[in-house]
Amino acid sequence: PRATHGSEQGNPNARTIQILEGLCKYYDQMQDTWRTLAYRRVIGVLRKQTVKISTREQAEALPFIGSRLAEKIEEIVITDRLRRLDNTRTDPMDKILRLFLGIYGVGLSQANKWIQAGHRTLDDLLRNAKLSHNQKTGIDHYDDFAARIPRAEVEAHGSYVRKALYKLDPSFEVMVMGSYRRGAKDSGDIDLIITKPRATLAAMRAVVFDELVTSLFNEGFLKTSLATSHRHDSTGTKWHGASCLPSSTTWRRLDLLLVPEEEMGAALIYFTGNDIFNRSMRLLASKKGMRLNQKGLYKDVVRGKGREKLNEGTLVEGRSEKKIFEILGVPWRPPTERIC
Ligand code: DCP
Ligand code: MG
Ligand code: MN
């Protein structure tokens, strides 16, 4: 969920945008990626308009707005609300679905299974459902994980990890990524890149995942690790879990990513995001016959009929964020402008 910017004052479509944002947020909670994306685009288009868009014809003339969305916009303008949103707000089953989807790591299929099994509240789940460690943690700390983390606290978690790692080996570096690097005033979680110049991944892994994580658990800073089951991280570069500052009782979601220096540029792009920006960069690479992932930019990627890739391609650039932009022909965008 993205924060609204309050920049709508004076925009002739402010009310329409406000209602569409409600719908966008709803689809985001429902984990409906495509609708969320479509609505974000429409909101972006409407923000740029200098006249009020009132009819479906006007709306359809704008980019990214098809006939169904155009109808919705007309309905919003005429009725000052959207039926779809009213229906979902009052449907109790819908509310429960959104409650369950708010549990860390829970997707639509799990949430629906619980509803089918008759569960209606978080207490219900705790008492009567068979829960994984992640799910139990997600419920026990539902409010913690739903709360935004102020920028200063994100920074404090980063510093805490940096200081602890410095004691083990002063040549390590810790960088705060994600929405923090994009300049957000608050974040959903804390994303850290950890690296050491000239070190191999295996050497870094031994210090970070064995020594550092163990000592941070002993100090009480780390609270639990959260399994990353569906993620295909065969190389073991990620750690997901929760941390808590000594001065606080609120658990925060913490993600660590180990990066060797030769992959730093690609990792910076990936872990800075946002997700939509990454998607557009990857699409662009693919259109140019290349492939961009969190390790590097590759060329000579052979793709089959369904655009599935048949080989890995050859590495073009991994080290430098700026060079990856250059090779893709994208003008440099500072992290604070990577919001789509
Ligand atoms: N990322 C991505 N695609 C995903 C998930 C993540 O490209 N499906 C990348 C882009 C994100 C970055 O990883 O910016 C960090 O992921 P987060 O989920 O932590 O998202 P943000 O840090 O951007 O936002 P938030 O403040 O909600 O944590
Ligand atoms: Mg984040
Ligand atoms: Mn994260």
Automatic annotation (TrEMBL):
Active site per database record: K72 (nucleophile)
Compartment(s) where it occurs, according to its Swiss-Prot or TrEMBL record: Nucleus
Residue ranges constituting the DNA-directed DNA polymerase X domain according to the UniProt record: 11-339
Top-level taxon: Eukaryota
Sequence similarity: Belongs to the DNA polymerase type-X family.
Protein name in the entry: DNA-directed DNA polymerase
